[in-house]
């Protein structure tokens, strides 16, 4: 009991962590009896012996205690207890609890909260009781008791238990649930979500913290900075920020701040001012190449730099002045424009202009309309060096001098002209229509396109869309993709390798309608043919804006021209002339023709009938109604019933043309009628509705890793570093700027240069004076002092006989296996002395990868001593993880993870980072993203991992990411779309003074607490000794239960104990006290300690005699908190025995339970 009380006292101060819930479902006490066989209320019926007077007033008690192998129903409920009110009679049930166990139902529910870690194992005692109605004592009202010992884990599901007893049956369910924010199998894992200064996280179903988006760390207090933010120069207090430290700037804090006032200078570290080329001075404000920067000399003068910001111009003949701006011979500068001839006069010059131009420099267009050249009322429009006449109807020609009603030269395409009363009529050849037979109906009907070309019908011609490998008007010319065809233009590139000083390369960047003009530094411009414009001469100037065609005509744009496709009933260049349907004299037998819009009407004579007065019998024939219409004879006239889409008296007019909905997109022109239409697309668009942008990047026009940007009828090449030109075929000569000093020889490379230094010089520009030293021997070769060379993925240098190499672990290099007797591909060769062998553990990233192997090595690779591996989750001060996310569509086929890792190891920046420490780069497919490769970077020293400065690995990771962000020639690395970096979060450094002071104050504080506790206990012992001397005079009934047995036993108590020993068998005795003085003394001391603990929970007072009477028993201790004094023995006339010892076994149970529940 003492230990149980101490355990409960400990739990009292802890925080609640869950609760045990019991839900009654059904109770059945058919006979209304108690556990001893008596009726709950009243007496039994004398006839059928049933308890029929009244039902039981049933309520339940629950006791939850620790797991017991041998369950005792007495004693304290260590884990807790609970009870219900009277909830029913003999039999009842809770329907909602039975039908839906997860539904909340307060009826029949007992909740026992616990304030400790749930121990899983338990003992449960469920008792049904009858409410005391005065007919029985409270100890005899037990109906039924269920004892269960089991294991249960916290959760929402309930365990249903059916108990069948001798007196009653009842069904109930139980479950254990953790309180809010408590988790785990023992409800002892606390996780409270928060979003404040102390953390930003949520809790999952297992109570584990999960950081909110943008936060990381154990307690999610560290913000994740903006992607790309340089963590060495930038910090953040909230996710997505990148606040630069002093001396740095830019969105990613990767740009240093130059020295204040620095004009033409840059910096690598803050507050530097490194002058750009041709600039000098303290603040780089002095122009050392004024001539090259400003080009001040005009008219072909030669500029010479003299001092900073100073220059002189050497002028050609005929010019003078500081900048050669004064013309001594005026005509030398060709001032006359538009072909004018210059003549020098005393006042300067005079221009003799050609026809159509005037003004001092022949820049003014002459007005040719001033002489009114247009006849017959035509309108003159002044043009450049000419004019144009807009003639009235019936007139045509240059000056409107031709009568259009005349047959002379009117009909085209072999048509025959016939004179009529109302003008002329053209009888067109097959395939042509229109007033002048100038419109070809279907130019593609004859199949003019060859070699599988696709034909597109134009108004008066056709266009062939040729397949790959063919060109020409009808796709008749075959060419190879490696050949230059005549559509390409030529770009001139400056070079020292030819006698002319230029190198001509072909390029089709300006398309078929432009000519390339070379510009400095590999740039170019396009000179367009008439009718085209745009940067790449890809835009055909739209001559249909504003719309010139009238009366619903469709304008078809041409090259510097247009044509109008007229609707039925109209003709002319602008569809402004009504077609005279009566010109062919369609009315027969003397009928009179009346011209209508796109139709005619015949007024018949002498009872002739029909559309053309051709019949005596009927108004209808097969040609009366057009376009499938049905003719009905109505006596004096006829009527046509038209098919869907056609209207008009003879069904000759299309209704709701398909072009009304503007189906052609992107400026396409719709031509059609009725139910069909055709889209004539603008250049650069294709498809039935001109919705698809033609891929101008197919076939790939860009060389040397250039990226093709597809536009509308144009493309642009974005060149990799080191290349230039319209199609990236020009290798930029980095030696043009003469970067190598001290007489060294410059060797041009791709996006770099190599300086071959003279003896005693070294460095990228041969700027380092190393003197004369010893040569080095390496791999059987001799290298001079100061020379550099590549050794697999490392760079080595010879310094006075000592070879110094960068320390990158290159691994085994991927190579292409020999197939069909051919050697390995030259793009992936092995070093000298090695061969390409198969390797079964290569990881394929983009199939197929069967052609890849690795280069053999004579010695096995050295073992790796590192925990920094991909997908391991390990991070420390010398370990970083980089995740490369690729665009799968851009990754070349046959790419392995080893290829990607090898390219990272061969980056020049990797050699710089591994100058002092060995750099390990390991790669593997990401477990979480199939499109990603996870890279682990770490430093090690002599085969052991280096616990170095965290900043070093962060700087290395940032440098690798920076190198990947730049354009390069690697096709694989061009497919990288996102890079993620993970490094260990380094805690902020703390001054040692603060922890030292904290330790000192903590020691002083602990010393003070120890002194106070010692003094308090000393005072407490003194008070206990004083109070012990006064116990004999204190009334224990008025004091808390602080039991200290007196030295003299009460004789009445001995009498009771003696009687009990005589009346009860040894196993049932509860008041045995005759064990000798030694045992009594031990029990006194134990009772003294137990009484002091019980004092904390007792709400009543117990007399010394009462406590002595209850506690002295051996084998079953009963203490009920009742403190009635010992009464004299109750002996009856029938028996001399003391009735107080009657039914002590029942008393043991009833008193213990009553004291616990009431």
TrEMBL record:
Pfam families: DSL (PF01414), EGF (PF00008), EGF_TEN (PF25024), hEGF (PF12661), JAG1 (PF23575), MNNL (PF07657). Residues 176-220 form the DSL domain. It is a single-pass type I membrane protein. Its main location: membrane. One of its GO terms (molecular function) is Notch binding. GO terms for cellular component: membrane. Putative Notch ligand involved in the mediation of Notch signaling. This is Delta-like protein. It comes from Oncorhynchus kisutch (Coho salmon). The gene is LOC109893733.
